[in-house]
Amino acid sequence: MKEPVSSSRATTDPGASTFEATHAHALARDRADTLARFRHEFAIPRHDDGSQAIYFCGDSLGLQPLRAERYVVDELHTWRDVAVRGHFEPPRPWLSYHELVTDGLARLVGAEPREVVAMNSLTVNLHLMLATFYRPTAARFKILMEDHAFPSDAYAVASHVATRGLDPDRAIVRVAPRPGEERLNHDDIEAAIAREGNALALVLWPGVQYYSGQAFDLAAIVAAGHRHGARVGFDLAHAAGNLVLALHDWHADFACWCSYKYMNAGPGAVAGCFVHAAHVANRGLPRLAGWWGHDSATRFRMGPDFDPMPTADGWQLSNPPILSLAPLRASLELFDEAGIASLRAKSVTLTGFLEYLLNRRMGDQIEIVTPSDPEARGCQLSIRVRSGLPGRELHARVERAGVACDFREPNVVRVAPTPLYNTFDEVYRFVDILAGCV
Length: 438
Ligand SMILES: *Cc1c(COP(=O)(O)O)cnc(C)c1O
Prior knowledge:
Aspartate Aminotransferase, domain 2; 7-stranded mixed beta sheet; 36% helix
């Protein structure tokens, strides 16, 4: 990689060289952890024997913030007690309820409040952003993405391109790892952008690759795309709540993310969307509109003409799902209390400790697919296990021993210790369990 990944700059852990492969060391790290109290803000699932499970699935579905239940029940009670008046009922009228998460979202992704909105789900937001920022012309019509994009992103882009009457096979350009490699090379991304040049309408890139856990130099990708006249947007499903992001300063045109992974807002939670300040007030941008994107001051005049909010709110379609926003509020409060920079610093150490123990204790049985450079990854490590066991059987054994982690055929285990609720003790015990199962 040519340049450091700016999404995680200045977070290298000075203590990584002082790791020790003992349980006592893990416990000492936990005692010294200034963020340890946040674990008590979450519901930790239980293993069959009643003990707390080792939950390393935060990259898939984050744990429930304890206060989320109260926040949801509060709104259920408002609905029960005052029904339609809930739209205006202090202290949290539903009419403006979505604004309660704006500042927290902005802080989490490095944006101005007017640049972010919580709405819809991730794939829906991808389509909405493509509708606005993919403006194909006869000469400039290509979309650059990664070859192994998450299926929903691949389906969304291909189907979207087809709705414009274009051939996805011609319009979509994919960047793959080099033969025999599993990680993408940053130079290859920039080379593809330069090669497509004037034909490139849009670069759509992930913040963190979901399978390998590789993080990208998003600032450099924006700069390269813009240098060649393309728009640049990000899918931050695995990056939001994981890395330190600076979407505004990087000049990303748009970004979308879901809120149920590292952001702990619950299954199917309302997603997030970023539109750069340079675009939010541009009424000339085409969009798929709905009444909730209309200027809130005049929305209820119910006029025939669409007059969008001069903020990311202007891309809203429908009145928001209050019961889904409530857990997001709970989650964002915790991110604000802990601070994403501090969380990222702990994450680098926590994942570094996991990597250290794996290499030290299982070096000849495993291969880590995820980059070893902390700046080129987030919480997650994808571990390929070489053992006589079929991968599925290995995963089942690890789960029976009380670990929740993710498995991908044929033999990759994905583990994501998260800094809000995981501990060094859990990392240590996980490696013990994995070694025992192999
Ligand atoms: C998790 C994930 C999704 C899921 O999309 P939904 O619309 O939330 O169901 C899409 N893309 C990526 C890259 C993901 O990691």
